[in-house]
Design a protein that fits this description.
Blueprint: H1 5-20, H2 30-39, H3 45-56, H4 65-68, H5 101-107, H6 138-157
Helix pairs in contact: 1-2, 1-3
């Protein structure tokens, strides 16, 4: 649906408001915005709205004239942003379903789910999900290091 006069008037007010809230951007007058919108009145309303709002929010557009030119950057929607999720810590990921703790706990309330949240840690009590204190391996590691050194010394002595 093309842009009607009523649509252009409403959009003009919105564009002026967005422009006034854009840091570092100078104001645009109503007549200039209406003139630019009139030149693209044949274009689909949704596309005009997007372009006009992107232009208003872009301080590099010194006048609303960019709205009238479909070759300007405001007519190209920005590329979708990729939200990189931070990997879940094992203590916040369920060992059984691999979902985050808060989702797993919600799902476990549903009938037929059949499991409780258990952290995806090698040292968690299966029945309660509580963390088990890891054993102190200081002595074992020292013994392994000593055995490796002894073996290495014998090898070099040959």
């Amino acid at each position: 649906m093309p842009v009607s006069r009523e649509d252009a008037q409403a959009l003009t007010q919105l564009v002026r408001s967005v422009r006034a809230q854009t840091p570092g951007a100078g104001p645009w007058d109503e007549a200039g915005i209406m003139a630019a919108l009139k030149k693209v009145a044949h274009v689909e309303l949704t596309e005009v709205v997007g372009a006009a709002l992107r232009a208003a929010a872009d301080k590099t557009f010194s006048t609303p004239g960019g709205i009238a030119n479909t070759d300007t950057s405001c007519w190209r929607p920005p590329p979708p942003t990729m939200h990189r999720r931070q990997p879940l810590r094992p203590s916040e990921r369920c060992r059984d379903c691999s979902k985050p703790r808060h989702i797993c706990e919600q799902l476990s309330k549903l009938p037929g789910d059949g499991h409780r949240f258990v952290p995806d840690l090698p040292l968690a009590d299966q029945s309660t999900g509580e963390l088990i204190e890891p054993p102190d391996t200081t002595e074992a590691r020292a013994a392994v290091r000593a055995a490796i050194k002894e073996s290495s010394d014998r090898w070099e002595a040959r």
